[in-house]
Structure formats: C-alpha cells, structure tokens
Amino acid sequence: MRYEMMLPYQIRTAIAENWPVVLPLGVLEYHGEHMAVGMDTLAVIKALELLEGEMDLVILPPFYYGAASYAVEPPEGNGSVHVDAGKLFPFAQELFKGLLRVGFRNIHFFIHHQTENYSAGMPTDLAFKFGARQAVFEFLEKERGEGWWGNEKMADYYASQASATDPFNWIKGHPLLRPEALRHYPFDHAGEGETSLMLALCPEAVEMERLGEARWYTSSAREASAETGARGRDLILTHLRETLAKR
Ligand SMILES: [Zn+2]
User: For residue 194, how far is its CA from the centre of ligand 1 (angstroms)?
Assistant: First the structure.
C-alpha cells in the first residue's frame, strides 16, 4: 500500500502485523542523452510496485533528492540535482524518528545510486544509515531512559541480535542489486545494465534513438535490451522478497 493513501486503521494493522515499510531512496542524475534523470530512483519504485502485488507492504513516498554529485556531468542543462549528504543526514534522522513514533519497527530503504561497493558506502546511503542509527538511539533513550541497554531486560541482547526485536534491526538499508546479483548482471551508469533495467521496468524513461555520440559510460548501452533487463528485474525481485520476508 502507498503510505500516503493509507487510513489510520490500515496503518494500525500494518504496525500490528509488522509489515515492511519501505522508502525508495535515490537521486536525480544525468544518465546519458537516452535516459531519464530519475533512473536510479525509478528502478527502486518500479520493482517495489511489482512486489506490492504479492505481499503486504507499505511503500513510502520516494525520496529523489539524494547526493547525486556532479561527478558524471555538470548540472547546467543536463539535469543532475545534488543535495549535500551533510544536509541529508538531519533529514533522514528526523524522518526515521517520525516513522518510529508512528510505531513502525520493520523499516527499510533501498537505493540503487552508487551502490557498486555498498558495504563501504557512498554519501547518500551513509547519510541515511547514520540518520537511522541516530534516530534509534534517540528514540530508545526517550522511550526507555538512559541506561536502557544496561537494564536486565536487555540481558539477551547479544543472543537476539539477529531477531526483529533487536532495535538495531528496526531500520535497515539495502542496495537494489546485492553483490551476488552483480556477478550475474552488468552494473554500470547509464550503460547496458541500467538501460536494460529501465527497458524492462519503465520503458517510457528510455529513448534509444537519442543515444548518439556516447560517453565511455554509455557506450555499452547499445547492447541494452528488455530481455537483459528482465533478468535484472528478476534478480532484484528475489532479493526484495528474501529481504522483506516476514520476520
Ligand atoms: Zn544510475
């Protein structure tokens, strides 16, 4: 369900049944002459929309205004919109605190931008990860008071780290394509991998005839096809299903 369309009784059901609450996180960034600037975010949204048909899921309004950077092209006339990660962090912290206050304890964000080395992190995902951690600490201290972790009730903390009751599992961030998937699918920027993915998930975001004089990073886009994209889509859906499975 789309969060903005939910009525309070539906929100209370989602909380009681611990539905996954998912934020599509991304950027607006130049993706060659042949593809829409929202590609990274659209990929997350479209994949979640497919998943929505098969499981209980809350999809939050997407956040497009990440740290795109101007590493690929300058923004003038090209379309990238960069918001500094230092400004994203307080926003993320407040957003996650707000979602915890509503009552959600199964919150996730998925991101596709600059996630080729996700475990090390890049500005947008690090800002949201940092915001999530700070939100959890702040929330717990307010709810349970100082010394909450040292309390006897937390004696099973290390034993239950993998479980949903561990507060540090309340908010998690994930790449759209996990490392295992990257062994079977080309990861690139506006090349064959991303262009194919858009052809499969959101074909209206691609105009192949615009490709023309390609940059190094778009040269492989000529090989793009909806069939290749469908393979990527299926890898993504498997990952989403496993990650968001009931816990
Ligand atoms: Zn991209």
Answer: 6
168 C-alpha to ligand 1 centroid (Å):
29
Residues 6+ apart with CB under 8 A from 148: 140, 141, 154
Residue 247: the pLDDT is 62
**C-alpha of residue 29 to centroid of ligand 1, in Å:** 7
Q: For residue 240, which of 38, 24, 96 has the smallest C-alpha distance?
A: 24
116 CA → ligand 1 middle, Å: 11
- For 107, the 3-state DSSP assignment is strand
Task: Supply the pTM of this predicted model.
Answer: 0.95
Query: Which pairs with CB-CB distance under 8 Å and at least 24 residues apart come from 77-83?
Result: 78/30, 79/28, 79/29, 79/30, 79/37, 80/27, 80/28, 80/29, 80/30, 80/37, 81/27, 81/28, 81/29, 81/37, 82/27
pLDDT digits (tens, 9 = 90+) for 186-211: 999 999 999 999 999 999 999 999 99
